[in-house]
Hints:
Structural class: alpha/beta
Largest sheet: 7 strands, mixed
Strand content: 15-25%
Distance between the termini: 56 Å
Amino acid sequence: xxxxxxxxxRFWSLTIQKYRxxxxxxxxxxxxxxxxxxYKQILSESLIIDVKSKLSRYSSKELYYKTRSxxxxxxxxEDNEASNLLFKLVNRNIDDTNLxxxxxxxxxxxxxxxxxxxHENGIRDLYGIEINDTAIELMDKNFPQLSSDIxxxxxxxxxxxxxxxxxxxxxxxxVSVLMHLDNDVEQLFDEIKRIxxxxxxxxxxxxxxxEYVLNKLDxxxxxxxxxxxxxxxxxxxxxxxxxxxxxxxxxxxxEAEQLSVLRSHYKNGTHTAxxxxxxxxx
Length: 282
Protein backbone atom coordinates (compact mmCIF):
# COMPACT_ATOMS: atom_id res chain seq x y z
CA UNK A 1 0.00 0.00 0.00
CA UNK A 2 3.07 2.30 -0.04
CA UNK A 3 2.12 3.71 -3.43
CA UNK A 4 -1.34 4.62 -2.13
CA UNK A 5 0.18 6.37 0.89
CA UNK A 6 2.51 8.39 -1.32
CA UNK A 7 -0.37 9.42 -3.59
CA UNK A 8 -2.55 10.29 -0.60
CA UNK A 9 0.23 12.40 0.93
CA ARG A 10 0.48 14.19 -2.39
CA PHE A 11 -3.27 14.74 -2.39
CA TRP A 12 -3.28 16.30 1.07
CA SER A 13 -0.40 18.58 0.08
CA LEU A 14 -2.45 19.81 -2.85
CA THR A 15 -5.50 20.17 -0.60
CA ILE A 16 -3.59 22.43 1.79
CA GLN A 17 -2.37 24.43 -1.19
CA LYS A 18 -5.97 24.84 -2.39
CA TYR A 19 -7.01 26.03 1.07
CA ARG A 20 -4.25 28.61 1.11
CA UNK A 21 -5.20 29.79 -2.36
CA UNK A 22 -9.00 29.77 -2.06
CA UNK A 23 -9.98 29.40 1.55
CA UNK A 24 -12.59 27.10 3.08
CA UNK A 25 -14.69 26.77 -0.08
CA UNK A 26 -11.85 25.19 -2.04
CA UNK A 27 -11.08 22.92 0.91
CA UNK A 28 -14.67 21.67 1.11
CA UNK A 29 -14.62 20.91 -2.60
CA UNK A 30 -11.36 18.97 -2.32
CA UNK A 31 -12.22 16.65 0.60
CA UNK A 32 -14.89 14.54 -1.24
CA UNK A 33 -12.48 14.15 -4.15
CA UNK A 34 -9.87 12.84 -1.72
CA UNK A 35 -12.23 10.26 -0.23
CA UNK A 36 -13.17 9.04 -3.72
CA UNK A 37 -9.49 8.91 -4.68
CA UNK A 38 -8.55 6.87 -1.62
CA TYR A 39 -11.39 4.40 -2.22
CA LYS A 40 -10.33 3.83 -5.82
CA GLN A 41 -6.72 3.25 -4.79
CA ILE A 42 -7.60 0.72 -2.11
CA LEU A 43 -9.92 -1.11 -4.53
CA SER A 44 -7.39 -1.17 -7.35
CA GLU A 45 -4.54 -2.39 -5.15
CA SER A 46 -6.69 -5.12 -3.63
CA LEU A 47 -7.20 -6.48 -7.16
CA ILE A 48 -3.72 -5.95 -8.51
CA ILE A 49 -2.37 -9.39 -7.59
CA ASP A 50 -5.32 -11.08 -9.31
CA VAL A 51 -4.90 -8.91 -12.42
CA LYS A 52 -1.18 -9.58 -12.60
CA SER A 53 -1.72 -13.33 -12.37
CA LYS A 54 -4.24 -13.25 -15.21
CA LEU A 55 -2.00 -11.17 -17.46
CA SER A 56 1.32 -12.83 -16.66
CA ARG A 57 1.09 -15.17 -19.68
CA TYR A 58 1.03 -12.20 -22.09
CA SER A 59 4.19 -10.67 -23.50
CA SER A 60 4.52 -6.88 -23.43
CA LYS A 61 3.41 -6.50 -27.02
CA GLU A 62 0.50 -8.90 -26.52
CA LEU A 63 -0.61 -6.71 -23.61
CA TYR A 64 -0.45 -3.70 -25.93
CA TYR A 65 -2.82 -5.33 -28.41
CA LYS A 66 -5.01 -6.69 -25.63
CA THR A 67 -5.51 -3.25 -24.04
CA ARG A 68 -5.98 -1.01 -27.07
CA SER A 69 -8.75 1.46 -26.43
CA UNK A 70 -12.25 1.63 -27.91
CA UNK A 71 -11.34 4.94 -29.57
CA UNK A 72 -8.44 3.26 -31.36
CA UNK A 73 -10.46 0.18 -32.33
CA UNK A 74 -13.41 2.14 -33.76
CA UNK A 75 -11.46 2.60 -37.00
CA UNK A 76 -11.59 -1.15 -37.54
CA UNK A 77 -15.39 -1.26 -37.72
CA GLU A 78 -15.48 0.50 -41.10
CA ASP A 79 -15.45 -1.76 -44.12
CA ASN A 80 -12.60 -1.52 -46.61
CA GLU A 81 -11.62 -3.00 -49.95
CA ALA A 82 -9.38 -5.60 -48.34
CA SER A 83 -12.52 -7.31 -47.02
CA ASN A 84 -13.84 -7.53 -50.56
CA LEU A 85 -10.58 -9.07 -51.75
CA LEU A 86 -10.67 -11.60 -48.94
CA PHE A 87 -14.16 -12.69 -49.94
CA LYS A 88 -13.12 -13.06 -53.57
CA LEU A 89 -10.15 -15.20 -52.59
CA VAL A 90 -12.45 -17.48 -50.63
CA ASN A 91 -15.20 -17.59 -53.24
CA ARG A 92 -13.04 -18.49 -56.22
CA ASN A 93 -11.00 -21.16 -54.42
CA ILE A 94 -13.65 -23.21 -52.61
CA ASP A 95 -14.51 -25.35 -55.63
CA ASP A 96 -18.15 -26.42 -55.54
CA THR A 97 -18.81 -25.86 -51.82
CA ASN A 98 -21.78 -23.63 -51.06
CA LEU A 99 -20.88 -20.52 -49.09
CA UNK A 100 -23.54 -21.29 -46.50
CA UNK A 101 -21.88 -24.66 -45.84
CA UNK A 102 -18.42 -23.25 -45.13
CA UNK A 103 -16.94 -23.30 -41.64
CA UNK A 104 -14.57 -20.32 -41.38
CA UNK A 105 -12.14 -19.15 -38.69
CA UNK A 106 -10.53 -15.72 -38.49
CA UNK A 107 -7.45 -15.51 -36.29
CA UNK A 108 -7.42 -11.97 -34.92
CA UNK A 109 -10.95 -10.92 -35.87
CA UNK A 110 -10.68 -7.52 -34.16
CA UNK A 111 -14.00 -5.61 -34.23
CA UNK A 112 -15.43 -7.84 -36.95
CA UNK A 113 -15.45 -5.91 -40.20
CA UNK A 114 -13.98 -8.72 -42.33
CA UNK A 115 -16.13 -11.39 -40.72
CA UNK A 116 -19.15 -9.14 -41.21
CA UNK A 117 -18.38 -8.81 -44.92
CA UNK A 118 -18.28 -12.61 -45.23
CA HIS A 119 -21.49 -12.84 -43.23
CA GLU A 120 -23.27 -10.36 -45.49
CA ASN A 121 -22.21 -12.47 -48.46
CA GLY A 122 -23.72 -15.69 -47.19
CA ILE A 123 -21.18 -17.32 -44.88
CA ARG A 124 -22.84 -18.15 -41.57
CA ASP A 125 -20.67 -20.71 -39.73
CA LEU A 126 -18.10 -18.21 -38.52
CA TYR A 127 -15.56 -18.38 -35.71
CA GLY A 128 -13.08 -15.84 -34.42
CA ILE A 129 -10.16 -15.53 -32.03
CA GLU A 130 -9.50 -12.08 -30.56
CA ILE A 131 -7.16 -11.01 -27.78
CA ASN A 132 -8.95 -7.72 -27.02
CA ASP A 133 -12.33 -7.92 -25.25
CA THR A 134 -13.11 -4.29 -26.16
CA ALA A 135 -12.91 -5.24 -29.84
CA ILE A 136 -15.39 -8.06 -29.23
CA GLU A 137 -17.76 -5.61 -27.51
CA LEU A 138 -17.50 -3.30 -30.52
CA MET A 139 -18.38 -6.22 -32.79
CA ASP A 140 -21.51 -6.88 -30.74
CA LYS A 141 -22.40 -3.19 -30.89
CA ASN A 142 -21.74 -2.50 -34.57
CA PHE A 143 -22.60 -5.84 -36.17
CA PRO A 144 -25.48 -7.37 -34.18
CA GLN A 145 -26.51 -9.78 -36.96
CA LEU A 146 -22.95 -11.07 -37.24
CA SER A 147 -22.71 -11.27 -33.46
CA SER A 148 -25.69 -13.60 -33.33
CA ASP A 149 -23.97 -16.11 -35.64
CA ILE A 150 -20.24 -15.85 -34.98
CA UNK A 151 -18.53 -17.73 -32.17
CA UNK A 152 -15.67 -15.59 -30.83
CA UNK A 153 -13.22 -16.73 -28.18
CA UNK A 154 -11.15 -14.15 -26.30
CA UNK A 155 -7.48 -14.93 -25.75
CA UNK A 156 -4.12 -15.51 -27.37
CA UNK A 157 -4.40 -17.35 -30.65
CA UNK A 158 -1.65 -19.71 -29.48
CA UNK A 159 -3.80 -20.71 -26.49
CA UNK A 160 -7.27 -20.78 -28.05
CA UNK A 161 -6.57 -22.64 -31.27
CA UNK A 162 -5.67 -25.90 -29.53
CA UNK A 163 -9.27 -26.14 -28.26
CA UNK A 164 -10.70 -26.69 -31.75
CA UNK A 165 -11.21 -30.21 -33.03
CA UNK A 166 -9.08 -31.50 -35.89
CA UNK A 167 -10.23 -30.97 -39.51
CA UNK A 168 -12.91 -28.48 -38.40
CA UNK A 169 -12.55 -25.55 -40.79
CA UNK A 170 -12.92 -25.15 -44.53
CA UNK A 171 -11.15 -21.78 -44.36
CA UNK A 172 -8.73 -20.30 -41.85
CA UNK A 173 -7.54 -16.76 -42.54
CA UNK A 174 -5.48 -13.96 -41.02
CA VAL A 175 -5.15 -10.31 -41.96
CA SER A 176 -2.21 -8.35 -40.49
CA VAL A 177 -2.07 -10.63 -37.45
CA LEU A 178 0.66 -13.26 -37.85
CA MET A 179 3.22 -10.52 -38.43
CA HIS A 180 2.67 -9.43 -34.82
CA LEU A 181 3.25 -12.86 -33.31
CA ASP A 182 6.46 -14.54 -32.23
CA ASN A 183 5.77 -16.44 -28.99
CA ASP A 184 4.84 -20.09 -29.63
CA VAL A 185 4.26 -19.24 -33.28
CA GLU A 186 5.61 -22.52 -34.70
CA GLN A 187 3.08 -24.35 -32.55
CA LEU A 188 0.38 -22.02 -33.89
CA PHE A 189 1.30 -22.88 -37.49
CA ASP A 190 1.12 -26.59 -36.64
CA GLU A 191 -2.31 -26.08 -35.08
CA ILE A 192 -3.56 -24.24 -38.17
CA LYS A 193 -2.61 -27.32 -40.17
CA ARG A 194 -4.39 -29.61 -37.71
CA ILE A 195 -7.72 -27.74 -37.70
CA UNK A 196 -7.92 -27.17 -41.48
CA UNK A 197 -9.91 -29.77 -43.40
CA UNK A 198 -8.25 -31.74 -46.22
CA UNK A 199 -8.57 -29.55 -49.35
CA UNK A 200 -9.41 -26.65 -47.02
CA UNK A 201 -7.91 -23.19 -47.43
CA UNK A 202 -5.54 -21.08 -45.39
CA UNK A 203 -5.40 -17.44 -46.47
CA UNK A 204 -2.75 -15.01 -45.22
CA UNK A 205 -2.85 -11.28 -45.95
CA UNK A 206 0.28 -10.24 -44.10
CA UNK A 207 3.19 -7.85 -44.31
CA UNK A 208 6.21 -9.82 -45.46
CA UNK A 209 8.55 -6.90 -46.13
CA UNK A 210 11.74 -7.05 -44.05
CA GLU A 211 11.98 -3.24 -44.18
CA TYR A 212 8.56 -2.86 -42.64
CA VAL A 213 8.20 -0.18 -39.96
CA LEU A 214 4.94 0.19 -38.07
CA ASN A 215 3.54 3.68 -37.87
CA LYS A 216 2.30 3.65 -34.33
CA LEU A 217 -0.52 6.17 -34.78
CA ASP A 218 -1.31 6.57 -31.07
CA UNK A 219 2.07 5.59 -29.61
CA UNK A 220 5.31 7.51 -29.29
CA UNK A 221 7.56 4.49 -28.88
CA UNK A 222 9.21 2.74 -31.80
CA UNK A 223 7.96 -0.84 -31.88
CA UNK A 224 9.31 -1.69 -35.30
CA UNK A 225 11.23 -4.63 -33.80
CA UNK A 226 7.90 -6.19 -32.81
CA UNK A 227 7.08 -7.18 -36.36
CA UNK A 228 8.04 -10.59 -37.66
CA UNK A 229 8.50 -10.83 -41.41
CA UNK A 230 7.97 -14.22 -42.93
CA UNK A 231 7.43 -15.66 -46.36
CA UNK A 232 4.28 -17.64 -45.61
CA UNK A 233 4.82 -19.94 -48.55
CA UNK A 234 7.93 -21.12 -46.71
CA UNK A 235 5.85 -21.50 -43.53
CA UNK A 236 2.91 -23.50 -44.85
CA UNK A 237 4.17 -25.57 -47.78
CA UNK A 238 6.45 -27.68 -45.53
CA UNK A 239 3.34 -28.36 -43.43
CA UNK A 240 1.48 -29.98 -46.29
CA UNK A 241 -0.13 -27.00 -48.01
CA UNK A 242 0.15 -26.04 -51.65
CA UNK A 243 0.07 -22.36 -52.60
CA UNK A 244 -2.60 -21.78 -55.21
CA UNK A 245 -2.64 -18.00 -55.44
CA UNK A 246 -0.49 -14.97 -54.60
CA UNK A 247 -1.18 -11.24 -54.89
CA UNK A 248 1.38 -8.57 -54.06
CA UNK A 249 0.33 -5.08 -52.97
CA UNK A 250 3.06 -3.51 -55.07
CA UNK A 251 1.83 -5.10 -58.32
CA UNK A 252 -0.41 -3.34 -60.80
CA UNK A 253 -4.07 -4.22 -61.02
CA UNK A 254 -7.32 -3.76 -59.16
CA GLU A 255 -6.83 -6.59 -56.67
CA ALA A 256 -3.35 -5.38 -55.78
CA GLU A 257 -4.90 -1.98 -55.09
CA GLN A 258 -7.48 -3.62 -52.82
CA LEU A 259 -4.70 -5.35 -50.93
CA SER A 260 -2.68 -2.15 -50.67
CA VAL A 261 -5.32 -0.52 -48.42
CA LEU A 262 -3.83 -2.62 -45.64
CA ARG A 263 -0.82 -0.36 -45.92
CA SER A 264 -2.81 2.69 -44.81
CA HIS A 265 -1.83 2.26 -41.15
CA TYR A 266 1.80 1.49 -41.90
CA LYS A 267 4.97 3.02 -43.24
CA ASN A 268 6.81 1.03 -45.88
CA GLY A 269 4.50 -1.90 -45.27
CA THR A 270 4.28 -4.35 -48.14
CA HIS A 271 1.44 -6.83 -47.85
CA THR A 272 1.16 -10.12 -49.70
CA ALA A 273 -1.99 -12.20 -49.99
CA UNK A 274 -1.47 -15.94 -50.28
CA UNK A 275 -3.99 -18.76 -50.63
CA UNK A 276 -2.93 -22.28 -49.61
CA UNK A 277 -4.77 -25.56 -50.04
CA UNK A 278 -4.34 -28.34 -47.50
CA UNK A 279 -3.11 -31.35 -49.46
CA UNK A 280 -3.33 -33.56 -46.38
CA UNK A 281 0.34 -34.51 -46.58
CA UNK A 282 3.35 -33.42 -44.56
